[in-house]
Amino acid sequence: MNAPRPGLILSDVTLTYPDGADRLTALDEVSLDVPAGTLTAVVGPSGSGKSSLLAVAATLITPDSGRVSIAGTDTRGLGRAELTALRRTAVGIVFQQPNLLPSLTAAEQLQVMAHLAGRAPDRARALELLEAVGLADQADRRPHRLSGGQRQRVNIARALMNDPAVLLVDEPTSALDHERGAAVLDLLTGLTRRRGVATVVVTHDRSLLGAADAVAEVRDGRLRGAASDDDRANLR
């Protein structure tokens, strides 16, 4: 039996932005451990630091201090090209809006990700992932012929194309009704388990937190973990 892959670790991460003559603290000594095969939901009010946490975890922003480890790789000291290569091979990002290329079919949306990572545009793998998200019969349809929920499923499958160790998901249900949103969260949970991915989902929909293995709340740049059922109930 193969050992589980290392997941995502943020250790004492602090991030500040210029604010006139001062600096605004977006993340204040934040620590987060997401093991492989688990899903952590991150909640919090607008402006609390959720988006900053996701950007740091994706290595899109370098924090002022602290450590970000992705699949066992310490990102401190890595150059821009090295971080780009790490994102392409070890990190899958599901943006709030699918931003699918209108001229490409569902399968081609996935194949282009492999091409960007320097791999062969494997149609067989693209079809396998589309089947995993329930879209095997939509592989040759372009975005305008897909529903909002289907486009989001393509978005998720695309993020998994290069077999990432870490999956970062930004508000995946914001444009969906509750039933379709719950279906997307169930899908993410199942894929996380089966593929051994360390998944972080930023969401405003607290009714969906029951699908998560752990819940963390961001307020004023500080992270509060909620591991117990009582804590989960208080966050809903």
Task: Based on the model shown, name its key terms.
about 240 residues; Rossmann fold; alpha/beta
Notes on the protein architecture:
There is one protein chain. The protein has 236 residues and is of the alpha/beta class. 33% of the residues lie in helices and 27% in strands. The protein has one domain: P-loop containing nucleotide triphosphate hydrolases (Rossmann fold). It contains seven helices and ten strands. The strands form two sheets. A six-stranded mixed β-sheet has the order 6-7-8-3-9-10. A four-stranded antiparallel β-sheet has the order 2-1-4-5. Helix 3 crosses helix 4 (123-132). 39% of the residues are buried. The model is unreliable at 227-233 (pLDDT under 50).
Quick summary of this structure?
33% of the residues lie in helices and 27% in strands. The chain is of the alpha/beta class.
CATH architecture, please? 3-Layer(aba) Sandwich
In angstroms, what separates the terminal alpha carbons?
38 Å
CATH fold label: Rossmann fold
Class in CATH? Alpha Beta
Helix percent reads 25-40%
Rg, rounded, reads: 18 Å
Strands in their spatial order, largest beta sheet: 6-7-8-3-9-10
Strand count, sense and barrel status of the largest sheet are: 6 strands, mixed
The count of β-strands is 10
Overall 3D form: globular
Write out the CATH superfamily name. P-loop containing nucleotide triphosphate hydrolases
Arithmetic mean of pLDDT: 88
Number of domains: 1
How many DSSP helices?
A: 7
Order of helices and strands: EEEHEEHEHHHEHEEEH
Structural class: alpha/beta
- The oligomeric state is single chain
Ranges with pLDDT <50 over ≥5 residues? 227-233
Could you tell me the strand content as a percent range? 25-35%
Keywords: ATP-binding, Nucleotide-binding, Transport
GO molecular function, one term: ATP binding
InterPro entries: AAA+_ATPase, ABC_transporter-like_ATP-bd, ABC_transporter-like_CS, ABC_transpr_LolD-like, MacB-like_ATP-bd, P-loop_NTPase
Organism: Actinocorallia libanotica
